Amino acid sequence: MKKKIPAFKSTRAAAAFVDKADLSQYDLSGAQTVRFEMKRKDKSINLRLPEELYDAVRQRAIHAGLPYQRFIRLALENAIATRK
User: How far apart are CA 8 and CA 6, in angstroms?
Assistant: First the structure.
């Protein structure tokens, strides 16, 4: 039986664990894909939203564990990708 991944209190603690641990001994079935944002963001927009929509977006971003601007950017990217 494989070991469970421990809970970490910080990103630094998680990075230290990954550096030292043999991950083949751990159950990674609950792992989630992580997306790194490498592209430079060189354009900016100003967007006016109704307060209710703004609050809903902020709450969904919190629930997703993301900053709200990244959440909005990912929603836009997903909308464009589904149209292709």
Answer: 6
